[in-house]
């Protein structure tokens, strides 16, 4: 059975998709851009956008009483994939998972993004 996850503490979907879906003991969080829940840009920097993206993911997970430590897989999209951006991104990303014993599996790719520099999606396992 699938259950839609919806919260006002993350940006509302701009298309025909859910912020998140719970299916059994898995939570699938849709890609979260570097914007605040009200839809405003978090800023131009990779750091600001990565922070906003991860906060949005954290808030969607919280709707199901899940935490970042429940995440098992993350897909990270950067509009410009270069060493400087990846380093800046990794600094913020690492701060969100510093106390997590088993870090999530992850891929980071360069993608054409519409008006943002960062988008992150996640899969969490609960229960």
TrEMBL record:
Q: Where are the transmembrane segments?
A: none
| Entry GO MF terms | deaminase activity
Q: Which Pfam families match?
A: Ribonuc_L-PSP
Task: Quote a single Gene Ontology cellular component term.
Answer: cytosol
CDD domains associated with the record: YjgF_YER057c_UK114_family
What InterPro entries has UniProt attached to this entry?
Answer: RutC-like_sf (IPR035959), YjgF/YER057c/UK114 (IPR006175)
Query: What protein name does the entry list?
Result: Translation initiation inhibitor
The organism's taxonomic lineage, starting at the top: Bacteria, Bacillati, Bacillota, Bacilli, Bacillales
């Amino acid at each position: 059975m699938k259950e839609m996850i919806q919260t006002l503490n993350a940006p509302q979907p701009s298309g025909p998709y859910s912020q998140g879906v719970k299916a059994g003991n898995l939570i699938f969080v849709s890609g979260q851009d570097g914007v605040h829940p009200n839809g405003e840009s978090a800023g131009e920097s990779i750091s600001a956008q990565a922070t906003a993206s991860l906060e949005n993911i954290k808030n969607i997970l919280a709707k199901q009483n899940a935490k970042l430590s429940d995440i098992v897989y993350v897909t990270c999209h950067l509009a410009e994939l270069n060493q400087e951006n990846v380093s800046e991104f990794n600094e913020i990303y690492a701060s969100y998972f510093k106390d997590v014993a088993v870090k999530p599996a992850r891929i980071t790719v360069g993608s054409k993004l519409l008006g943002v520099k960062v988008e992150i999606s996640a899969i969490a396992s609960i229960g």
